[in-house]
Amino acid sequence: MWLVKTSRSPYWQARYPHPDGSGVIVSRSTGQEGKRAAEARGAELEAEAQRAYERERVGGAVTALHVIEEYWETEASKLKSAVDHVFPHLARIQEFLGDRRYCDVTTADVARFCDDLARTVSASTVNRAVSVWRRMHNVAAKKRLYPVSVIDWSQVMRAEPEPTQRKLSPDDVAAILRHLPVPAAEIAIFAVATGIRKRQVL
Question: Which one of 3, 48, 87, 132 has the minimum C-beta count within 10 Å?
Answer without folding.
Answer: 48
